[in-house]
Each structure stands twice: as structure tokens, then as C-alpha cells.
Design goal:
Radius of gyration: 21 Å
Largest sheet: 7 strands, mixed
Order of helices and strands: HHEEHEEHEEEHHH
Number of strands: 7
């Protein structure tokens, strides 16, 4: 009798464990759909910039870009006190100008002032230095506090100031209703989205450093390769 009871308990525990494992796989499959959609959204943002080069990011800035963050559909809501929240991807280039794999990040921040309403915009951050990227991989950075950020100038073929050559570490842009513009994101924090990275690459305990700087061999979804190809088309000049 005790043996039968023990067997029944063992079987029940086994079934519960399997159920949790199956549920975990299903949750990951559901979640990766969100990540795939986010990368597709990032591709659309880049493609729209390609279509209007005269109103996009200056070539002279892109040619010196070490990294770029593309954050589609960032929501900004406000009622006197405002907040910004969204997700996207961060990519860096090697010395040959080739873009690496996307690393998922989150942006969050607040502001105070007379404001009201809800807005959605695509945000693009152009990073000039490796130091800023490394700070993000170590946890998070607050734009304007941990790294100098400036509103980006428009026009890919525009003559740019010496400020772009030497001073700001990060330049920020937004696209809303089909129009690109510089945007202030001071006070917003950029942080690695570890769960999204684990889901997208189907690998737990994956560090942002491994993704961005090639520390591990990864099973890279096709949509990530398309993003890199699209970004290469837009930033064909080597650093």
C-alpha cells in the first residue's frame, strides 16, 4: 500500500514538473513573438529613414557611430508629471563597420511640467563611444547624468557642427506621424532587458556583453539578420 502511494506521489510530482516545463516553453514561445515583432518594428523604423535621407540622421554622424539603439513605439504619458516607457534593440559595430547582434533594452524616464496626454513615438539613439555602451551592459545609464546626450541634428547630407565631432556621447532622435526630429531624452534610463534577450536567443543566463561583443555562439533568428542588413544599408560608411 505504501509502495503504491509512493509511486502515485512520484508520478504526480513528475506530472507537475512536466506541466511547469511545458508551460514555461509555451510562455517563452508567446514571449518571443513580442521580441520578433519588436525587431520587425525596428526594421520598419530604419526603412522609413532610408526613404527620407534628407530628413534623417546626418551621414557624418552615422559614419562615426559606434552603436545605435532603436526603440519603436515608446509611449509618453503625462498629467502634470510625465513618464516615458518603451523597449527596443541596441546594436554596435566592429572595426570593419559590421553590425553585431541586437540586444534588447528598455527605456524609462519622467518629467515635470505643464503637460497632458498620451503620445507614441519611435526613438533612435546614436552612440559615439564604446564607454556608453559598456556602461549599459553593466546595468543601466541615465541619459544626461551618466552620459552626455544632445538633441540630434537632421539631414543626412547636412554639414554638422564640431559638437558632433567631439562632445556629446549620444544623439537622440524621434519619429512621430512620419516626421523625424531631434528629441530631448535627458533623465531617461536605458537598461538591458535580460528576459527579452533570453527569450529571443533561447538561452538563459545570457549577458548583454556576450550579445554585443560576441562572447558566445548564438542561434540568431532570421529577423535579426535582416535588421543588420537593413542597418548596414543605411550606414554603409565604415567607422
Amino acid at each position: 500500500m505504501l509502495k503504491k502511494l509512493a509511486v502515485c506521489i512520484s508520478v504526480s510530482i513528475f506530472c507537475l514538473v512536466m506541466a511547469f516545463q511545458i508551460e514555461g516553453v509555451q510562455d517563452r514561445r508567446k514571449s518571443i513573438t513580442s521580441e520578433l515583432e519588436k525587431v520587425n518594428d525596428a526594421i520598419e523604423v530604419i526603412e522609413e529613414m532610408i526613404e527620407i535621407p534628407e530628413e534623417g540622421i546626418p551621414e557624418s554622424l552615422l559614419s562615426k557611430a559606434y552603436g545605435i539603439a532603436i526603440l519603436p513605439k515608446v509611449v509618453k504619458a503625462a498629467w502634470i508629471v510625465g513618464g516615458r516607457l518603451g523597449k527596443g534593440v541596441l546594436l554596435v559595430r566592429d572595426e570593419g563597420g559590421r553590425w553585431g547582434n541586437p540586444c534588447f533594452v528598455r527605456i524609462a524616464g519622467g518629467s515635470i511640467g505643464w503637460q497632458i496626454g498620451i503620445q507614441s513615438a519611435d526613438i533612435i539613439l546614436v552612440f559615439k563611444r564604446k564607454k556608453s555602451i559598456e556602461s549599459i551592459t553593466e546595468g543601466k545609464i541615465t541619459l544626461g547624468a551618466d552620459a552626455a546626450v544632445a538633441v540630434g541634428p537632421l539631414g543626412r547630407r547636412a554639414e554638422v557642427s564640431t559638437d558632433i565631432e567631439f562632445e556629446a556621447e549620444i544623439y537622440s532622435y524621434s519619429k512621430s506621424r512620419g516626421l523625424f526630429a531631434g528629441i530631448s531624452v535627458e533623465g531617461s534610463a536605458i537598461q538591458i532587458d535580460e528576459d527579452a534577450n533570453a527569450n529571443f536567443y533561447d538561452l538563459d543566463y545570457l549577458s548583454a556583453h556576450d550579445i554585443l561583443f560576441g562572447g558566445k555562439r548564438l542561434n540568431v533568428p532570421a529577423v535579426a539578420k535582416k535588421l543588420k542588413e537593413t542597418l548596414t544599408e543605411y550606414t554603409s560608411t565604415k567607422i
